[in-house]
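PROTEIN DESIGN WORKSHEET
SECTION A - STRUCTURE
LENGTH: 314
TOKENS:
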């Protein structure tokens, strides 16, 4: 995998899901419960001078919404990025060049990060009110920044692939390297975040079918997704858990997987079209042959009748 960056008349599963989200969003507009922001819990570890990728996806209608990122540290709140206006040096959206983020993706990069930028980052909707007061300390994505003089951390989770592109039926490689010891507990893979995240692989437990571990070394926790479909698209996280207490300890930055449907073969289309094109032509030839033979029969009968009349008169 390179490192980065439905064709039938009946509706596909993704189209039905989109329709369901639109209908449910419009029906819940009055109580404001149609919105859901998905971002990893963390903590995420990054060294000074590196680039941090903060993931955020909005479920529900995100058109004409003003989204922003807020950092909370020591009870202070700071606007990190605003998708509608403002200038934020060193911060840029992951998806650029479109009026609205693709698939409601509000992920951002923070380049050349410093220890002052450690804290908890929240992807929030700005509605002109005091939305900052609604931010909870136990939500958002926790970020730890390692300085040059700091001791090596006990654990570091590296997901080098930011984006992976695949076609239906492919086998996809998702890379994860875990360095250090950390607390006792398993490594697990998840698709998505928050309450809607789905367990994909557990190195010490039950895992989904068609998912296998690579384990090229003791620090390799990469997996293979076999025979992927469009439903497999999403962001996958490699996460470390601690056994006592049983809770998430640290998460990788995530790998986004996009899956497109396999195109129909041109040769197959030509073979299918040939009988359709040849059938009308063969029918036309048959009709013409019948007409010609019919004309010949009529002409012959007329000649025989004329001869009979002539012989009678003679």
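SECTION B - SEQUENCE
RESIDUE ASSIGNMENT:
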């Amino acid at each position: 995998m390179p490192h980065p960056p439905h064709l039938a008349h009946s509706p596909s599963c993704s189209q039905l899901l989109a329709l369901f989200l639109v209908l449910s969003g419009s029906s819940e507009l009055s109580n404001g419960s149609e919105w859901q922001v998905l971002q990893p819990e963390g903590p995420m570890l990054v060294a000074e001078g590196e680039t941090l990728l903060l993931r955020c996806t909005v479920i529900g209608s995100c058109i004409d919404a003003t989204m922003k990122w807020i950092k909370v540290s020591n009870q202070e709140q700071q606007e990190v990025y605003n998708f509608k206006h403002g200038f934020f040096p060193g911060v840029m959206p992951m998806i650029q060049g479109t009026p609205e983020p693709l698939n409601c993706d509000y992920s951002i990069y923070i380049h050349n990060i410093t220890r002052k930028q450690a804290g908890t980052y929240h992807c929030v909707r700005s509605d002109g009110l005091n939305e900052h007061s609604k931010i909870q300390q136990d939500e958002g994505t926790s970020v730890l920044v390692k300085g040059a003089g700091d001791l090596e951390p006990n654990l570091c989770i590296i997901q080098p692939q930011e984006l992976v592109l695949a076609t239906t039926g492919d086998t996809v490689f998702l890379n994860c390297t875990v360095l250090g010891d950390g607390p006792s507990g398993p490594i697990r893979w998840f698709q998505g975040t928050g309450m809607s995240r789905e367990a994909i692989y557990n190195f010490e437990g039950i895992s989904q079918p068609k998912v296998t571990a690579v384990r090229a070394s003791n620090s390799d926790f990469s997996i293979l997704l076999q025979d992927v479909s469009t439903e497999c698209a999403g962001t996958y996280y490699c996460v470390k858990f601690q056994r006592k207490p049983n809770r998430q300890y640290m998460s990788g930055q995530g790998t986004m997987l996009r899956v497109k449907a396999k195109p129909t073969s041109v040769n197959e289309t030509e073979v299918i079209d040939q009988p359709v094109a040849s059938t009308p032509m063969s029918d036309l030839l048959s009709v013409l042959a019948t007409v010609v033979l019919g004309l010949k029969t009529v002409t012959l009968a007329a000649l025989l009748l004329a001869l009979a009349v002539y012989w009678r008169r003679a």
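SECTION C - NOTES
The first helix runs from residue 13 to 27.
The chain has two helices and 21 strands.
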